[in-house]
Amino acid sequence: MPKNENYSSNFQDKKNNHNPNIATILSLIFAGLGQLYNKRFLKGLILILLEVSFIITCADFINLGLWGIRTLGTMPGVDHSIFLLVYGLISLILIVFAIIFYVLNVKDARKQAKLIAQGWKAPSIRESIKIAYDKSFVYLLTIPGFVLLIFSVLLPLLFAVSLAFTNYDLYNSPPKNLLDWVGFENFGKLITAPLWKDTFVSVFAWTIMWTLVATTFQIVLGLFLALLANDSRIKFKKVIRTILILPWAVPGFVSILIFAAMFNNEFGTINRDIIIPLFGGEGIPWLSDPFYTRIVLILIQTWLGYPFVFALFSGVLQSVSKDWYEAAEVDGATRWQKFKNITLPHVLFATAPLLIIQYTTNFNNFNVIYLFNEGGPAVQGQNAGGTDILISWVYKLTFETNNYSMAAAISLIIGILISIFAILQFRRTSSFKQEGKI
C-alpha cells in the first residue's frame, strides 16, 4: 500500500458525513473492510484476500509454533524441542509481519476516510493502480530481499540467542529428552560456578589481551614499514613493497601450520636449529607452556596481519600533500612534529573504521588460535585451554563437549561486547562525519 498519494486534484468543494472512526473499526475487525467502506473496492478486496490467505495458510503453523516455543514439547521421544523452538521463532516473525500489515491497513483506511470526509474524491481504478505502482515500486524491489535477510540472518541469530536460555547439552538432547527454559541460569554459572567462573575469567582476560596486543602490534608494524617504504630517501620502493606484502599472498592457514611445525617442542626447527645450539638445554616449551604459546601466537598474528595494514597505510600516505610537509619545514617542525601533526592524523582519519574492524576481527580470530595449538595447552581446573579465546572456547563447547546452551550464552556475550565496542568507536571516529563539521 502506498503511504502517500497525490490527492490535491481530487478534492470537492463540499464535505460529507463520511466517518473515519467507522473505517478504523472496520479495518480492525478485518483487513480491507475499512477500504470497502471508503469505496476503495479493489484495494479492499486485495487486503481481504491477503488476510484470508494468511489465516488459511499460517494459522495452524502459528498455533503449533506458539505452543512449541512456550513448552518446548511435552512428550519425550515424540516432540523435538529444537524443531518446536524453530517453529516458534518463525511464528513470532510471521506475527510481526501480520501486525505490521494490520497497522498499515488501519492507518490507510483512517487516513483516506478523513480525506473523504473533507470532500476528497477517490481516483479511478486505473489511476489508483498507476499511483500505487509509482509509489510502491521501490518497496516491491526491496521487500523480497528484506524478507530473505530476516530468515537467513535474523532467524539463526534468534535461534542462537534462544539456546542460551535453555539446558541443551550432551546429556539433555532431543528427541530423547526435552529441553527446558532455564532463564539466566547459564549466565549465572559463568559468575558463580567455580569451574565455569575460573575458566571464563581466564579466557576472557586472555581474549582482551590477545585482541589489544596482537592487533596493536600489527598496526604499529604496518605503519612503521609503510613510513619507511614511503620515505623519499629509500630506493627500490617497488621491490621493498613487494617483499613486505608477500606474507599476505600465502594463505593464512598454511602459514599457521608451518609456524606450528617450526615451534614444535620436539622436532621444530626453532628449538632444534636455533635455541638448543645457542643456549643448550632442551629448548623452550613453545606448545606446552601457556606463557610461551601466547607470545608465539601474538608474533604469528603480527606477521599475518601487518601486510594488510601496510598496504592500507601505503595507499593513504600517497595522498598526503607534500606541500604540508614543506610548510611545516618552513615553520621549523621536526620529523616527530610532522609525523604527529600531519601524517598520523591524516592516516587515522582515513583508516579508523578499518582499524576498528581489525580489533573486532582479532577478538574472534579463531583460525590462529585453533590451527596453531588447538587452544592448548590444557590448564588444570579449567575446561578451556591456556590459549583459548572466547570463540575457540565456544567451538570446543559446541563440537567437543556438546554443551550447546553454554556455548550460546558465551556467544551472546561475545556479540554484545563486539557490538558495544564497535558502536562506541564508530561514533567517536571522524571518518563518518562531514569534513566541514570535524
Automatic annotation (TrEMBL):
Keyword Transmembrane recorded: yes
Keyword entries, A-Z: Cell membrane, Membrane, Sugar transport, Transmembrane, Transmembrane helix, Transport
Q: Which residues cross the membrane?
A: 20-38, 45-69, 81-104, 137-165, 203-227, 239-263, 291-313, 342-361, 404-424
Which InterPro entries is this protein grouped with? MetI-like (IPR000515), MetI-like_sf (IPR035906)
Q: Name one Pfam family in it.
A: BPD_transp_1
Ranges where the ABC transmembrane type-1 domain occurs? 204-425
Instruction: Say which domain of life the source belongs to.
Output: Bacteria
How does this chain sit within the bilayer?
Multi-pass membrane protein
> What is the annotated localization of this protein?
Cell membrane
User: Where is it predominantly found?
Assistant: membrane
List the PANTHER family hit by this protein, alphabetically.
MALTOSE/MALTODEXTRIN TRANSPORT SYSTEM PERMEASE PROTEIN MALF, MALTOSE_MALTODEXTRIN TRANSPORT SYSTEM PERMEASE PROTEIN MALF
Name the chain's protein.
Answer: Maltose/maltodextrin transport system permease protein
